[in-house]
């Protein structure tokens, strides 16, 4: 049974490929879209908010494992008002997602929650991150956004099937 769903951010939660390039000041265009001072925009994908809320309503933990500068990650999450959904956030300026997930596992253990690999679902838009995740962390359920699932509500269906 899945206990935690860990998301990537860029091209998984929102449509921009790299929020680390965003420059202040940011402008909230609407509740789902942000523009930076250079005209870079990001928009939350449809159903993200509802899916995050549904996962919390199901009693699941939610993690974020993103290859972005931490301060930019937190600023964007706060502007979009979705930070509250995430129990654990790992945001680093390097691409090794298996290290991020290991850190999430450790932080959950510090809270008294012990996770086995098959209780973790990891969702990323790039399959390349799955190999080392399986190699170093075990049988984590990995789903490639836009290939294994084509919209966020499908995550809820996949959880029931694992």
TrEMBL record:
Pfam families membership: Acid_PPase (PF12689)
Single GO molecular function: acid phosphatase activity
InterPro entries, sorted: HAD-like_sf (IPR036412), HAD_sf (IPR023214), HAD_SF_ppase_IIIC (IPR010033), MDP_1_eu_arc (IPR010036)
Name of the protein: Magnesium-dependent phosphatase-1
Native source organism of the sequence: Sulfurisphaera tokodaii (strain DSM 16993 / JCM 10545 / NBRC 100140 / 7) (Sulfolobus tokodaii)
Gene from which this protein is expressed: ST1448
